[in-house]
Structures are given as structure tokens and as C-alpha cells.
Amino acid sequence: MTSTDDGAVILRRDGRAGRITLNRPRAINALTHDMVRRVDAALTAWEHDDAVTTVVIDGAGERGLCAGGDIRLIHDDARAGGGATATRAFWRDEYLLNARIPTYPKPYVALMDGLVMGGGVGVSAHGSLRIVTERSAIAMPETGIGFAPDVGGTYLLSRAPGELGTHLALTTARLDAGDAVRAGFADHFVPRARLASFAAALADTDPADAVRAHSEPAPAGPLAAHQEWIDRCYAADSVEEILARLTESGIPEAKEAAEAMSTKSPTALKVTLAALRRARRLSSLAEVLDQEYRVSCASLSDADLVEGIRAQVVDKDRRPRWSPATLQEVTEAHVARHFAPLGARELGLA
């Protein structure tokens, strides 16, 4: 085995497998710009190395693969003024990496054990072989910080069964292993007790054979039983109508979903719903990432992004003061500006 370690990313060769380990365990391996660059450079090197036949990504520590991007850095950059050029550059490289993963010419195996959120979804759920365990908890939590799902999240969410993706995006609910497979975020369930053996087998075994030897059917997730009311309530054309249907349904779980949504950024809720509906009409991940880049860059000028990160991560008072404070105050024009072309600054994948 050969290894290189820059602290935040460990790269090593294990037989025929190139191994990427995100290594910021105290931050649940939250991604920085340099980490994105390191992962991309490793993919480039191994793409042209005939000795590497499979790429494997996992996270250091016991808590999870990756909790997302380092949003405290985004908060500080957005507050500093100057157009948040560092954040825009980070997102550009991150989304380009997300777009590269599903077209990578070698098997890309993601070990989605523990927490996998936001940017962690972007470096795993677009892979060719996505493994979950009984500890997996997968989510796109962006509306809780005044943001919209990105890293290709709206592509995955918009293609989940029925309106399940809308429910996940607006409430930030987590997927367990069974629901992750059902929703299209993962492929196979490997019990955590077999995960190390599975990863070791990839050194000299075809990934498909390793899966057959180590996987078993995923346990049924809890969301499958709620598909009927999820489809009915979230099919509405506006966030206001979705909330009304959830509240009036008489179903306890639907009422809980409405209560969860009521704590999220009104702007983020409306932008997210529009992004999901638009993503359904787009034909490729590349097109969706182009759209997400527009939305993300526009969100830098929303007060809610900085405020949401402050409340959840910086001050941790969990009491964001959203502006506008109500759904009724978020105009169609304000939502529409998040989808406006960026001209020369477009991501330009599609």
C-alpha cells in the first residue's frame, strides 16, 4: 500500500483500489476548497493509471462520510463583502467535481456510513456504486440555513419516487439505509460489521463481486409507508398550499412535516420548490448543476444564508431571524432572480 496525506485528505493505493479518505473527523469531514481540489487531482491521476481499477471514497472517524461543505467559511466570506469570490470559486470546483463523478471511467465506490449531508452527498451519491449501512443518515439540510439543495441534490431529489424528494428538501428529513436505496441515493446495503471486509476486498476483487459477497437486502425504511400523503400534499404548486394540505390532512406525520417546514427560511423554501420543479424538466445532471450554481450565487446576496449559518453553526442559538419573515412576503420576482443567467460567470457544464 502507498499513501499520501495532506491532513484533510488521505490518498492511498490498496492493491488495485485507489482510496480517498476525507480526514477532518472533528468537523465530520466537512469539505474545504483544497479538499475538493485534492479529490479531483486524485481522480485525474488514477484515471490514467492502469494499475488502479477502482476508486473508493470514505470518511475518517466514527461519525460519518461527510457533513457537507465548511459553511462557517462561507459565512465569513459572505459577511466580508467583496462579492464572496472565494465561495463562488469553491462552488465552481465542487460542482465540476460532482459532474465528473458519474462519468468517471472506472468504478467509483462511495462508503456512505454515518452522516452524509449536503456536499457529502455530492461526492458520494453520484457514484457508480453507493453503499449504505444501518448507521447511514443522508440529508440535504440546506433550507435550515437559508439555502437551497446543491451539489446535484436537486437532480437526485427531483427524481425520487413521487413527491418524496420535495418532502426531503423542504423538511430536511433524513434518509436511513432503506429509504436511501428506494429514493435513488444509494444502491446496496452492507451491514457495518462487514464494511471493512468489503472495502478490503476491493483491493483485488471486482466491485460487483464484492457487493454480492457482502451485501444483503436493505431494511425497509419508514418513509415508504407515507408515500400516499407525501404525494398528495407535496404535489401542490406553492409552498403555502403544501403547508395547508399537510396541516389539514389529519395525519400526525404530515403535521410534523408542516411544523418542520415552519422553522425554515421562507425564501429558501420557495426557491427550493422552484428549483425542484425546474430540475424535473432538465435532462441531465450537468444542466441541473448549471442551474444550482446560479441559485447558489444568487443566495449569497440573501440575508438568510448568513443568518442561517450564524444561528445553526456560529452562535448556535437555533433562532434564525429570517428576512423576509413570512412566505407571503417572498415575491415571485425575488424567487425568479435566483435563476437568472450569470453571463460570463456561468458554470457552463451543459
TrEMBL record:
For this UniProt entry, which residues form the secretion signal?
A: none
**Enoyl-CoA hydratase/isomerase domain mapped to chain residues:** 18-339
Enzyme class, UniProt record, top EC level: hydrolase
Pfam family membership, one:
ECH_2
* Reactions listed under catalytic activity: 3-hydroxy-2-methylpropanoyl-CoA + H2O = 3-hydroxy-2-methylpropanoate + CoA + H(+)
Which InterPro entries does the entry mention? ClpP/crotonase-like_dom_sf, ECH_dom, HIBYL-CoA-H
Keywords, A to Z, come to: Hydrolase
For this protein, what is the EC number? 3.1.2.4
SUPFAM superfamilies the UniProt entry points to: ClpP/crotonase
Keyword ATP-binding among record annotations: no
NCBIfam families (UniProt xref): PRK05617.1 (NF004127)
Q: What is this protein called?
A: 3-hydroxyisobutyryl-CoA hydrolase
